[in-house]
Design a protein that fits this description.
With 433 residues, the chain is of the alpha/beta class. The chain has 13 helices and 17 strands. It is globular and about 65 Å long. The structure holds S-adenosyl-L-homocysteine (SAH) and iron/sulfur cluster.
Length: 433
């Protein structure tokens, strides 16, 4: 989502600025920030510090902070880092142009951190979209904010209430992206399954998927994140039946113990979760599942933790993202006692990694010898003469090819080898270009 917000800022500024990969050359540096755990929040300070030197050398350099840490800290950032010129929160960054005007006129730092519950994000599109290079797969934010208040999570406090964007804006944005060569969109929201639920005039998420899949020239649709509690039978059926919808679902479990899930305020049990997985697999046997796991939530016993491991063995995810629980301001979990010591969290995280590494290896090994459809994203980082793309199940494939100008094509690849986080193969034929 942050990456997508940065792209919006880039488009907003593209009539005045152009991108550079060299900070020494920059007239404006905006650092987009994450606050979901303590670590990324702290990283902001060292990152900003790196640019202080540049500011000393070049007085007119504008230095700004945007995103969740800007939202969280607001004015405080200016006091802590007096050389910062702009602090633009999670809605504030849309006003970057206005902020720059005020800064140039008044010559003092500008802070915009208001969060409006009925905020309408403007439609920001550009047919010259080319940052940093033309993309085959692009993010499209379909909703902002979150109303779920999982007890560990800071997001609802920093990104505000859930707001679904109007379908006309979403369609227009995707149509424009397709004109620039985009073939796949990744629809973004903290909980895409609840798209449109708050407004009777809006379609629901399944209907939105159908509308998007009408767009000619768009071949693939992905989306994230799906909250298990809102994953409907209607959506499960659509995933199976709509050929443009990729056969991959990111379905954050967080924990395997019902006791911890309850304390997390996730509003499902492990049995509810497994029933949904079964339905998904019944209708889409090839579907790949991925998830997020938190270890060491306050009060998590060894037995609770074992339940998480059991769920990994049971569901067999393609990949997982796992985190040590981190105390966040404003949240209910921060106020709980029974915090888990760092070494225990560390040990549990390591165990999760070990179990999952084996499962991923086994699943990736099962691709060897198979022919898969790959949407080519560009040259492979692993080796010149190789291209890189993804399967519908979102697995990265690096493959040798007699032609290297296949970016944006859908090709058939024979998988010959499985790596830790990717597959290796050989080009067979072009299916669509
Ligand atoms: N809306 C998405 C995720 C948003 S945050 C969802 O509901 O899944 C991304 C991930 O960060 C979460 O899924 C969770 O696993 C992790 N996370 C959030 N808050 C955290 C915290 N306080 N400590 C550790 N991990 C956290
Ligand atoms: Fe955070 Fe829960 Fe909302 Fe995801 S659904 S953003 S974890 S509060």
């Amino acid at each position: 989502m942050n990456e997508n917000d940065s792209e919006k800022v880039f488009i907003l500024l593209s009539d005045e600025y152009e991108p550079t990969f060299n900070p020494e050359e920059a007239d404006l540096i905006l650092i987009n920030t994450c606050s979901v755990r303590k670590k990324p929040q702290h990283k902001v300070y060292s990152e900003v510090g790196r640019y202080k030197e540049l500011k000393n050398k070049k007085k007119e350099l504008i230095l700004g902070i945007m995103g969740c840490v800007a939202q969280q800290e607001g004015e405080k950032l200016i006091h802590k880092l007096p050389y910062v010129d702009l602090v633009l929160g999670t809605q504030g960054f849309y006003f970057i142009k206005e902020a720059l005007k005020i800064l140039k006129k008044e010559r003092k730092p500008v802070v915009i951190t208001e969060l409006k519950p009925n905020f309408k994000p403007p439609l920001i599109v550009s047919e010259n979209y080319s940052f940093p290079i033309k993309k085959v797969s692009a993010f499209v934010t379909i909703m902002q904010g979150c109303d779920n208040f999982c007890s560990y999570c800071i997001v609802p406090y920093l990104r505000g209430r859930e707001i679904s964007r109007p379908p006309e804006d979403i369609l227009k944005e995707i149509e424009t992206l397709v004109k620039t060569g985009v073939r796949e969109v990744i629809l973004l929201g903290q909980n895409v399954n609840s798209y449109g639920k708050k407004d009777k005039n809006l379609p629901d998420f399944t209907e939105l998927l159908r509308m998007i899949s009408e767009i000619e020239g768009l071949w693939r649709i992905r989306f994230t994140t799906s909250h298990p509690k809102d994953l409907s039978d209607k959506l499960i059926k659509e995933i199976a039946e709509n050929p443009k919808v990729c056969k991959h679902l990111h379905l954050p479990l967080q924990a395997g113990s019902n006791n911890i899930l309850k304390k997390m305020n996730r509003k499902y049990t492990k049995e509810d979760y497994l029933a949904k997985v079964e339905k998904l697999r019944n209708l889409s046997p090839e579907i790949a599942l991925t998830t997020d796991i938190i270890v060491g939530f306050p009060g998590e016993t060894e037995e609770d933790f074992e339940e998480t491991i059991k769920m990994l063995e049971n569901v067999r995810y393609h990949e997982i993202f796992s985190f040590k629980y981190s105390d966040r301001p404003f949240t209910l979990a921060e106020k709980l006692s029974d915090k888990i010591p760092e070494e225990v969290k560390e040990k549990r995280l390591k165990m999760v990694h070990e179990v999952q590494e084996r499962i991923t290896r086994e699943i990736y090994q099962s691709y060897v010898g198979k022919e898969v459809e790959v949407l080519v994203e560009g040259p492979s980082k692993k080796s010149s003469n190789f291209l890189m793309g993804r399967t519908t199940t979102n697995v990265v494939v690096n493959f040798s090819s007699p032609r290297l100008d296949l970016k944006g094509a859908l090709v058939k690849v024979l998988i010959e080898e499985a790596g830790k986080h990717s597959l290796k193969g050989r080009y067979l034929e072009t299916l669509k270009s």
